[in-house]
Amino acid sequence: MPPHDALPEPMGLPSPLASLPGPAVPRPVRPRQGPRCFLFLQGPISPYFLEVARGLKALGHAVHRINLSLGDRLSWRGLPAENFTGRPEAWPDYIADALDRLGVTDLMLLGEQRDYHRVAIRAAHARGIFVTVTDFGYFRPDWITLEADGMGGDSRFPRDPAAIRALAATLPPVQLDEQFQDSFLRQAVWDVGYHLATLLPWPFPHYDSHQLHHPLATYAGVLRRLLRRRAEHAEGAAAMQAIGTRPYWLFAMQMETDFSLRAYSPYDDLDTPIRETLASFARHAPAEGQLLFKVHPLDPCLKRWRRRITRMAMAEGLGHRVHVAHHGVLEEMLRRSQGTVTVNSTVGLRAIVFGRPLKAMGKAVWDVPGLAYQGALDDFWAEGMPPDPSLREDFLRALQGTTQLRGLFYGPAGRRAAVAGTVARLHADIIGVPDGAAHHAAGQRTA
Hints:
There is one protein chain. The chain is 40% helix and 12% strand. It is an alpha/beta fold. It folds into two domains: 37-185 and 401-442, Rossmann fold (3-Layer(aba) Sandwich), CATH 3.40.50; 230-395, Rossmann fold (3-Layer(aba) Sandwich). A seven-stranded mixed sheet has the order 3-2-1-4-5-6-12. Strands 9-8-7-10-11 form a five-stranded parallel sheet, with helices on both faces. The protein is globular and about 65 Å long. 44% of the residues are buried.
């Protein structure tokens, strides 16, 4: 374990691919007909991509995979694939040639901000190839996201309330129940196997990972948190008890490795928005107000957040008005709070569900006028208002109905549902909407 607040050095050097953008192109108004060719790049660390490809192949489509690492290769068996073993600077020419050579019509990947993926998206758009991005769902715990071109700050989902209301009118009511349970053990085993495989020098000697830190340091941090799980739950309860009946605001932390922070916010780390929030709170929050920082449940805590946040709080003269919880009952924290501040975490969506005031410090799909506070952070402590109930219902209905698919990447039952739904939507060419409803409206960007 790294001592005190020391942080392991990030893996690798800045990538030569990192500065290449990938502008979006319009999606088709009408679904395309006939067999297509799907190229898969990196996906979830599970058989999800392989099973989706098998389903598409059974429907008459061509499928292909480009493996970038040994971990990718381990999760793809029995279907056409090739390995890219060159240096990162050779990737732009390689992917451009592959798109032409294979006759690709559709590109599918997880994490549109990974350096290799940004280059591939740019090359795909230049050729009129359609890009589908997947990741964990905006709705938790048993939804996945399927969007055209990008997520989060790059999502095509409208930010205009009128457009959201019009879209919601075509869609069924939102579902907030849980139907599938995921398998943490299965996810952990596959994740460790994948990342340990990427450390081997053969046969991908030049692979440039998008991860910030060495996987062994990350796993050591996660293991430490698992061993402290009971103490962390007690810590959350103790924080709520210390706050008592006094008014408090919640800061929902994210993982620093998350591209929602790295790509869709002005911050390169989590310390900076935390420091900005503390400074604003010290100047403008009510004197009796408290501030609760909730650490992300999967953060390996290579930075010792309690120590760091306490030190920053003391520098702002906040003393015992600041609390840190590594675990706890998030629903209780949200419901009892005066409001939530986050960069762009999906916790913001939970705050909207519970009707709590909300402020985004980055670009978020839920940062919509009437739902999230649009003014300055300094004014949020006094002026933050709950989301408009009618718009909230329309927003939840529209977001879930156009970008979400019920299912999981790991648990067997949930993965079967996710695979079946993904294959159906890709085959019907209706990514972004269910069953073709309001296809054109969902494809408009209103940044």
